[in-house]
User: Which sequence fits this backbone?
């Protein structure tokens, strides 16, 4: 749990990629990822064209000339958003997962998905696009924020009754090992104030409503329909 989606992305990309690793990022990736990459020890940060599986394939193929990448001694992190906020378009996530597995045969390809704009909207009970595609076990880390569609805190708001200012929190879903690493090395998590109880309570209430189906009736039908069409292979 981080105090904001910005802190989560910045902390993750600043500390998880190690010296010599490579980060490939979509041209439209969020500014918080750029900030994390600026602080990262990764050897290379390479941009690929927005939502272009072909351009990503070209870059991955070129990386195979690096023997350490080819042998799995250097990791390749691929940063995408499941739903991009600027244009509202969806990432071809399944194609990207298949591509990374096909080219990086040593298993050193790691996909990080920012679900900030799809969380609470897309998929069964608003679980996001990764879950809808059944790709949970193939994604290295996922960012989910609790503002925006979840509506707990989006940005900041003032509670005039209690005089509290609550900020936009986020969580990174990852393996237990990655979680322990972030707890020990992600500076935006370590050197900051703990989340307030009202914030945690608000998040818990919304997820309870999502789990019991209460929020299904307020999701726009057009969004559900469009996502269903996205999951259907095109002719």
Assistant:
């Amino acid at each position: 749990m981080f105090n904001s989606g910005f802190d989560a992305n910045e902390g993750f990309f600043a500390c998880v990629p190690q010296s010599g690793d490579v980060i490939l990022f979509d041209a439209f990736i969020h500014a918080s990822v750029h900030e994390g990459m600026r602080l990262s020890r990764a050897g290379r940060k390479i941009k690929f064209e927005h939502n272009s599986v072909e351009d990503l394939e070209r870059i991955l193929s070129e990386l195979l000339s690096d023997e350490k990448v080819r042998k799995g001694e250097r990791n390749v992190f691929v940063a995408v958003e499941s739903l991009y906020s600027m244009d509202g378009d969806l990432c071809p996530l399944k194609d990207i997962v298949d591509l990374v597995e096909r080219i990086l045969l040593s298993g050193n390809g790691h996909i990080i998905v920012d679900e900030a704009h799809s969380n609470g909207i897309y998929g069964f009970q608003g679980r996001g696009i990764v879950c809808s595609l059944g790709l949970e076990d193939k994604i290295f880390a996922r960012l989910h924020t609790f503002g925006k569609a979840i509506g707990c805190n989006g940005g900041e708001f003032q509670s005039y009754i209690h005089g509290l200012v609550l900020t936009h929190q986020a969580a990174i879903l990852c393996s237990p090992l990655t979680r322990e690493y972030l707890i020990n090395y992600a500076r935006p998590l370590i050197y900051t104030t703990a989340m307030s109880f009202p914030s945690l309570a608000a998040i818990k209430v919304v997820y309870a409503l999502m789990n019991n189906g209460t929020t299904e009736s307020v999701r726009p039908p057009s969004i559900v329909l469009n996502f269903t069409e996205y999951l259907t292979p095109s002719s």
Q: What stands out?
A: The chain has one domain: 5-231. Residues 197-211 form the longest helix (15 residues). The two ends are 41 Å apart (CA to CA). Residues 130 and 136 are 6 Å apart (CA to CA).
